[in-house]
Structure formats: C-alpha cells, structure tokens
Amino acid sequence: MTENHSPDQAPEEIETAMAASAADELARLQGELEELKAKSADLADQFLRAKAEAENARRRAEEEVSKARKFGIESFAESLLPVCDSLDAALAIESATSEQLREGSDATLRQLLSAFERNKVVMIAPAAGEKFDPHRHQAISMVAADQEANTVVTLLQKGYLIADRVLRPALVTVAAPK
Length: 178
Hints:
Elements: H1 11-71, H2 74-92, H3 98-118, E1 121-124, E2 137-143, E3 152-157, E4 159-162, E5 165-168, E6 170-175
Parallel strand pairs: 2-6
Antiparallel strand pairs: 1-4, 3-6, 4-5
C-alpha cells in the first residue's frame, strides 16, 4: 500500500488519507472475507450432501446385496415346485404298477432337468474315451484300459456346473498310462 503524497500536504492530511485508504482496504478485505465465508459454507453444505448421498447409495447397495443373497434362489426353488408336486402325486397313488412308477419317474426327471436348464445348471457326464479334465472331473482311480492314458474309462457319478462354475465334479475312473 504505497501512496504518493505531495510534500506540501500537512501530516494530518496524510494521516487522514492513510486512515481513509486503510478503512477502504479493511472494508474490501472484510467483503472478501464474507465472500470466502459464504463460499466455505456452501462447499461445506455440498460436502455434507455428497457424503450423505454416498452413504445412502452404499446402504441401498448393501440392502440389494442382502436381498439378492436372501432371494437369489427364489427362481430356482420356484422351478423345482412342479418336481415336488409330481413326486407327491406319485406317492399318493397306493397301487401304482411298476410301469406307472417308471413313467412317472421319467416325467419327473424331465421336469427336474428342465428346471436345471432354466437355471443354468448343466450336467457334466463325460463319455468313455473323453480326455480327463481335472477342472470338471474327479478321478476316483486309475485303471488299466485299452484306450489312451488320462481319458475317462467309466462315469461313476454325474457332475454339475452352474453358470460355468463347478457345483460338483463328475466322479470318473481314468485310464492309467501303459
């Protein structure tokens, strides 16, 4: 804050001019301070709103994950209800013939496989001679066989995938190296 004062001004005039200049500067700084306080309060309000919105989004996401865990199997369970109904109906018949039981069992199995298909549950049933896949098959034993080593000889139990993830590997015997 430099001001040019002429040598013919009296010290009182210089002092008055400096006081006026200081008062103007003080008023400008106070105005700037008030403006910065208002901006600070606005930013603090925006921060709190953003923080609350982020917290609400996190809470909603947690609720959705919780609901997905709780009810994720609902579609699968719903598709198994007809299978249960078929089994109940079969058991309600007291004097069913073996032919009726076989026919009912086949129909129930078709319903079950249809439910699996709708819910992306895929059967793993390697045929004899198929290459052993340790990611989808579990070897119970190695046996001597007239086929290439490390190929499936016998399927002991079917395996299942769900959405490309192994739910249960297929249990197999594998051809031993010769």
